[in-house]
Task: structure prediction
Amino acid sequence: MAHTHHHTDTDISALRKACILITSFMLVELGVGLWANALVLIADAGHMFLDATALGLAWWAARLSKRGFDQQLSYGYHRFQVLAAFVNGLTLVALIVWITVEALQRLFSPETMDPWPTLIVATLGFVVNLIAFRLLHDTSGNTNIRSAALHVLGDLLGSVAAMVAAAVVIMFGWLYADPVLTLGIVVILSRGAYNVLRESGHILLEGVPAGVNLAKIKSTLTEEVAGVDGVHHVHAWGLTAEKPLLTLHALIPENAQVQEVVGDIKRLLKERFDIEHSTIQVELGPCPDDQHGHAH
Result:
């Protein structure tokens, strides 16, 4: 779990390049999609627009998170990445609705599309996405980057759908290929949106980070750390998916070496559970919180 600062520099540079690449091509795809009346290209351009936003937000968030913390945001700016991913997921949902309605209308009354420009642009789009995906693949892989890479991966499939739709129209003149394959893109987009919203929503709601088992932490600390008689009020949440934070109360005997016990607890949390940031409240008797009726 060593997410050090040199990662963020490679991340920022990869995100910047991918963002510029995708944004430029999205404009080309949208223009040709409108000109050739190819919904499948417009859908793919819509997807690329979201990729560009996802990459832009991710790039911005990665730069912000290097700023450290200040008086206003004592934990720093990491959450911006999560917020960016959440907003992006919501935008994705709006786009999915619009494209679905449009595709269903075309299923009932097919419209002619110009297949050749569609095929050429979709093929170029496929290449552009491959390059962008490759760029993002060589980074540290935090949620922010993963959600951006997921967008690009979905886009690769979107380009394939557009290529197939154009090829079918060229060979068989079957106009339904456009709306049918557009709906294929919608399925890919929906999965992406659901995952991004679920993961970022969980973090924003202070959910327990994936892979952190509170019951296991309690039992491990009680059994393995000498001088810990009990552990309670355990709370874990994440700044981002990679940065879990934990607070807990530890009951220790009066004669214990407090400093040593706390050191042992923190070491175990770090080594066994990958939790680098923990706050331990030491108690030598009944828990002061429980005496005010706040029992957990």
Q: What stands out?
A: DSSP finds eight helices and three strands in the chain.
